[in-house]
Amino acid sequence: MQYAIKISQLHKTYDNDFIALDGIDLSVEEGDFFALLGANGAGKSTTIGIISSLINKTSGSVEIFGLDLNKQRNQAKTMIGLVPQEFNFNIFEPVQEILINQGGYYGIARPVAKRRSAALLKQLGLWEKRAEIARNLSGGMKRRLLIARALIHQPKLLILDEPTAGVDIEIRRTMWKFLSKINAEGTTIILTTHYLEEAEKLCRNIAILEQGKIINHSSMKSLLQQLSTETLVLDLKQAISTLPKDSPYQLSQSDPYSLEIQYDKSHSLNDVFNFLTKHQIEVLSLRNKTNRLEELFLNLITKNKQS
Amino acid sequence: MTWQQNWIAFSTILIKEILRFLRIWKQTILPAVITTVLYFIIFGHLVGSAIGDMDGVPYHNFIVPGLVMMTVISNSYGNTVASFFSAKFHGSIEEMLVSPIPNSIILLGFIGGGVARGLVVGAAVISVVLLFTEVPIMHPWITFSIVVLTSILFALAGIINGIYARSFDDISIIPTFVLTPLTYLGGVFYSISMLSEFWQNLSLFNPILYMVNAFRYGLLGVSDIDLAFSYFIILSFIGILFMFTLYLLKRGKGLRN
Questions:
Q1: Are residues A70 and A160 in the same domain?
Q2: Is-contact B110 B17, C-beta < 8 A?
Q3: Which helix (H) or strand (E) element contains residue A233?
Q4: Are strands A188-192 and A205-210 parallel, antiparallel or unpaired?
Q5: Are residues A239 and A210 in the same domain?
Q6: How many alpha carbons fall within 13 Å on the CB side of residue A301?
Q7: Hey, are the CB atoms on A56 and B96 less than 8 Å from each other?
Q8: Contact A74/B95, CB-based, under 8 Å?
Q9: What is the distance between the alpha carbons of residues B21 and A92, in angstroms, rounded to a whole number?
């Protein structure tokens, strides 16, 4: 199995002595959809910055598809497409020109870049805006422009640093669909996001960074299996004024027509519903109270802080 | 990257830079032309008619090379410092930093933009001046090569300023406090033979003096300075600044954390 990224003992200390990365080891397999999560300041953007040559590392090694960033940097750069957190294009340039110029920086001839940019703009719903200067685009359009720009040289690895920040749900879903499609076509994707639902939905593997260290590096499935309880929010057909006293589950109410029920995963949903039926509580609909990954993420961070 | 890919990357930066200053021609080309024409009318014609000849040349012709050079210097410098710093400020420089373009190609692209603006504005200024007076071009190749070399030198200086600058104030400090005094004291309006020996010797430390005089030799055939020595000085400065800028880009000074 070839690794898209293999990082060993990566350290980064900034000029003000802030230790952003404290010896991280990380590997991402080719073709993976990988989540790199962490709170603000955990070291995600520094890691991405080093991989994409925007930040100089202090020590350690980074390999991109087997190419050592120290020795074969320019070759490695052709493999990577970066979608940064901040809008970093020239806002006075027309949309398609931004893509064609980016292609030019990778040595792609103008006619080829023009063809590719047209295809990308169409796929990302920006074709109508191709002649518009970037300043006139909405926030969601600017985010999609960043994705199109990162893909103009057809990289094998796409790194997205919070690509859906400030984007409405409809566009977010369109972007998820697009990213899933290019991942299925073979592009390895690394995603950092604060929307943990997004990571849970899209990513197969995950690493969690905290204070410059990796505190979890596993598959999404095995991480989610660590969750021992589940909380459901139930919408009730009839209001209830008092909660059953003999409940083996933790119950609470925010209003008479809803019920929150937290149950241990050793119980089945059938047990839960038997209990509800026994107490003549009729359920109209149900949903998970919190995102499961969010809960795990907070648990891990808290545990790490306590230790 | 292959030679062909490097050429595509270079021409992408160059065309982008040229389009940038042409798009805002009211800010980049027009003011330089108006200022120089005013200088020419006031100092050349009005004051100059009272001065007579300088180094055997009518004063209004004597100042033409200096005025053109002044424009070329400030425009080639201004183009790269503004473009490089705003690319840094808005983050669009990262488009190049994440790509596999060699630093030397990035540098050549920006220099090309500075030279192009220097040549365009220089040509515009000289065209307008020719409406008022006849200026013989005694040595066309010397004239052209000196303009190009001077543009290269000051485009490089502008990039260095752009690399170190942290705010928009920082990109106006050098032009105001270093370039303008050196230009005015570089023999634009006078021959250094008019100065006392002390000031003549001190003037020889001013690199702009060599460019103005070499250009004056190209246009009018008169100079205070030996032509070969002027070329030597200009080429040496270009070599030193080019290597220094490459070193700064390699280190990522002001660009990478």
A1: yes
A2: yes
A3: strand A229-236
A4: unpaired
A5: no
A6: 17
A7: no
A8: no
A9: 12
Cβ neighbours of B87 in A, within 8 Å: 90
Q: Which of A105, A158, A159 to mutate to test the interface with B (most CBs of B within 10 A)?
A: A105
- C-alpha gyration radius of chain B: 19
Is there a single domain that holds both residue A148 and residue A246? no
A143 part of contact set with chain B, CB < 8 Å? no
Dist CA A83 CA A191 (whole Å):
10
Q: Amino acid identity of A67?
A: L
A258: CATH: 3.30.70.1560
**Model confidence pLDDT, tens digit, residues A44-79:** 999 999 999 999 999 999 999 999 999 999 999 999
* Residue A273: domain span: 228-306
Q: What is the pLDDT of residues B138-147, one digit of tens each?
A: 899 999 999 9
Mean pLDDT of the region B242-247: 96
pLDDT tens digits for range A154-174:
999 999 998 887 778 888 888
Question: Tokens in use for B123?
Answer: 């040509």
| Highest mean pLDDT: which range of A288-297, B48-57, B123-132 | B123-132
| A127 and A27 both lie in a single domain | yes
Is residue A154 located within the same domain as residue A301? Answer: no
- Per-residue tokens: B22: 């042409």
Query: Are A53 and B97 within 8 A, CB to CB?
Result: yes
- Which residue is it, tokens 């980064």? A12
Residue A23 confidence (pLDDT) above 80 = yes
Among A206, A224, A242, where does a domain finish? A224
Note whether B6 contacts A: Cβ–Cβ < 8 A: yes
φ and ψ of A39, to 5 deg: -70, 170
Q: Provide the CATH number for the domain around residue A155.
A: 3.40.50.300
Q: Do B91 and A106 touch (CB under 8 A)?
A: no
Interface predicted TM-score of the whole assembly (ipTM), two decimals = 0.86
Both A77 and A90 in one domain: the answer is: yes
Partner residue facing A86 (CB), from B16, B91, B100:
B91
**Pair (A216, A113) in one structural domain:** yes
For chain A, what is the domain count?
A: 2
Domain extents for chain B?
3-251
Task: State whether A181 and A289 are in the same domain.
Answer: no
